[in-house]
Amino acid sequence: MNKVRTRYAPSPTGKMHVGNLRSALYEFLIAKHAGGDFMLRIEDTDQERFVEGATEIIYRTLDKAGLEHDEGPDKDGGFGPYVQSERMKSGIYMEYARKLVERGEAYYCFCDRERLESLKTEIVEGKEIMMYDKHCLFLSEEEVQANLAAGKPFVIRQNIPKEGTTTFHDELYGEISVENAELDDMILIKSDGYPTYNFANVVDDHTMNITHVVRGNEYLSSAPKYQRLYDAFGWESPVYIHLPLITDENHKKLSKRSGHASFEELIDQGFLTEAVVNYIALLGWSPEENQEIFTLEELIEKFDYHRISKSPAVFDIVKLKWMNGEYLKAMDFDKFYEMAQPYIRKCLTKDLDFKKIAAMVKTRIEIFPDIAEHIDFFEQVPDYDSSMYAHKKMKTTPESSLEVLKELLPVLEAQEDYSNDALYDALCKYVSEKGCKNGYVMWPVRTAVSGKQMTPGGATELMEVLGKEESLARLRAAVAKLQADTAKG
Ligand code: GLU
């Protein structure tokens, strides 16, 4: 058996979207699962679509995601060059195109723009498509040579018969047959001498010994033309896996507008690389058992491309957030603290124990930016309504809270040790003297020091972080507030 060799073959045209990263990831996993090689090839023959800096994004993303390539522009593995514009310099594409011309599988076309524009167009899938009428296929050999000698601009086109059908095989979609009459004689070599993306892709996959090709199913419609090229050359085509579309929650094509389309944007929004990679692995693939959290190593071990599904994959940001939260929970605390610190610092100007705050939020947040809503009250008690003191289960009311807080103030003023444990003991002592339930006291205290329904810690944990002075100031302010509000009735 041939060694498995896969490639990620991006065109450097901009950001790396979730769909791009999924293709790269699946290619990587197929290779690594089989002990094969994963290669990076830059497809930059379409000079008009080239975007400055896009290649750097590709390198950065693959590197960050841990998809280390075995071969690529920066790592020669004997199949280089790995950038198509450089491969072109050796004349490889022209050489192969000429081979097809010799076999009658391709032909020179000298038609100028005017003539092409006069040709009939057809509406295919809502788009206007020009079908070339094979005019130049019928030029005599002498005419062709004379045109070439005269330096007349030309393209080379694939010669697809008008009759019959072309059949190709895709791992997910099975056998697909199309009528040849529907296939245009696509351009292989453009008038600027560059190969078209479709042609270079086939020549390179073959000459670089690629065994498996994974890509979005928007390429499915070109696949028959690819098949004809493989057949014309007498080459065996690689295993093709056209991946299902990724849609947003409304089953619309995932777009920039959905706000979560590019990898770097997701990272900027506070997602962890490992979580994004894990999540993307499951956009179209599922393991045999019910596992959802995978390290990259586990994915390599478990990834079986036969289990890729062809139904559209829904990019569910809620699920991704949940997954990210699982990663945060499992993260080593020191690492978590290091990453959480900037987010904590952004909301708090007070000199508080950030480490304790980080420990409080670690299991409560899904992404780092969630930290703000959990800890903002440490900076300042928000405006809140006294009705928050009424809690059915705790059996508290604003009136009962006022009484408890008033009684507690002198106790907490006398209290020297403001550690969580000592404060907890002090409050429990008061609870038992009063003969009430714990919550009857903890609820008003927690409300008083935070002004929030939900806090990342209990009353005494919050007071430990706030310290004696600030805690007392908040308790006194709460008493004053309750006094004013309960007097109002
Ligand atoms: N250059 C193509 C792209 O960026 C790659 C398609 C393929 O993998 O064959 O979409």
Folded structure, characterized:
This protein is mainly alpha-helical and 489 residues long. The chain has helices at 18-33, 54-65, 84-89, 92-102, 113-118, 141-149, 197-207, 223-233, 263-268, 273-281, 296-302, 317-330, 333-347, 354-361, 371-379, 398-414, 420-434, 438-450, 459-488; strands at residues 5-8, 37-40, 106-109, 121-124, 127-130, 155-158, 165-170, 174-179, 187-189, 212-216, 239-243, 246-247, 313-314. It has five domains: 5-72 and 200-245, Rossmann fold; 92-197, Alpha-Beta Complex (Glutamyl-tRNA Synthetase, domain 3); 256-329, Orthogonal Bundle (Glutamyl-tRNA Synthetase, domain 2), CATH 1.10.1160; 331-379; 386-488, Orthogonal Bundle (Arc Repressor Mutant, subunit A). The chain is 46% helix and 11% strand. A three-stranded antiparallel sheet has the order 3-6-9. It has a two-stranded parallel sheet with strand order 1-2. The longest helix has 30 residues, at 459-488. It is elongated. The termini are far apart. The mean pLDDT is 94. The structure holds glutamic acid.
